[in-house]
Structure formats: C-alpha cells, structure tokens
Amino acid sequence: MNDIDAWVWWLVAAAALGIPLVVTAMPEFGMFAVGGVAAAVTAGLGFGVVVQVLVFVVVSVALIAVVRPIANRHRAQRPQLATGIDALKGKQALVLERVDGSGGRIKLAGEVWSARSLDAGRAYEVGQEVDVVDIEGATAIVI
C-alpha cells in the first residue's frame, strides 16, 4: 500500500464512520470521521502508517475530550427563547369578566382567554391586572 492508497483508504474510513453518524445521530462517529480525514492528510503528506494511526487516535480522542462536554452542556441548557404557552407564563393580563375559582375571562397578549384563579377563594374584578402562573389547556391560571 503506497502513500496515495493510504490517504484514499483513510478517506473511505472517514466516510464509513460518517454513515453511522447520520443514521444514529451519535456525534462521536463524526469525531472519528474527522480523525480519519486528519490521518488522510497525514498520509497525503507522506508520513508513515504509525504516524497516520497516531494522528487518527490523537485527533479523535481530542475531539471527544473537548467537544463532547461542550455539546452535553449545551444540550442540558434550557432554550433562551420561550415559545408557546411557556412564553405566556409570568405575563400580566387584564380581567375582562370577573375571575374566581370557577372561571372568568382575561385579555392576555392581545387575546381573550378563559381564566380561573389559583386560589379558589380569591376573586378578581373587571379592570384588575393579574399575573399568569400557568396554562391548563385553554385556561390561564392567575393570581
């Protein structure tokens, strides 16, 4: 196997490692594929098999050691932008019809919502501002 054949084999190995990345969505395979490309470049520059394998191992392990913890940290973070009903929690609303434990109407984010108070014994009169603490179905829970 001469130097040109070596870099071709490394690229084939990188492509083969890229296939499970797409199929399984495991980023480690992508990191191994990048190690294969680095080894192909090393082979193309004329270095021996031992150096090629060493470059493959070092680049792959370095990527896993550095990129994987960063990816896990980003995956664990909550999204910065709240959407849907999560964006409505904590907003203020205007009472349109008396709101108590059994129901009522509020104007929330420009729309009319059915609402009920969190504390069943508490009532809010027309014109009062209330805070939305939760959304259950199409009903806002307010305090």
UniProtKB/TrEMBL annotation:
It is a multi-pass membrane protein. It is found in: Membrane. Gene3D superfamilies: Nucleic acid-binding proteins (2.40.50.140). The chain crosses the membrane at residues 6-23, 53-71. The keyword Membrane applies. It comes from the Bacteria. Residues 86-142 form the NfeD-like C-terminal domain. One of its GO terms (cellular component) is plasma membrane. Its main location: membrane. Keywords: Membrane, Transmembrane, Transmembrane helix. PANTHER family: INNER MEMBRANE PROTEIN YBBJ (PTHR33507:SF3). This is NfeD family protein.
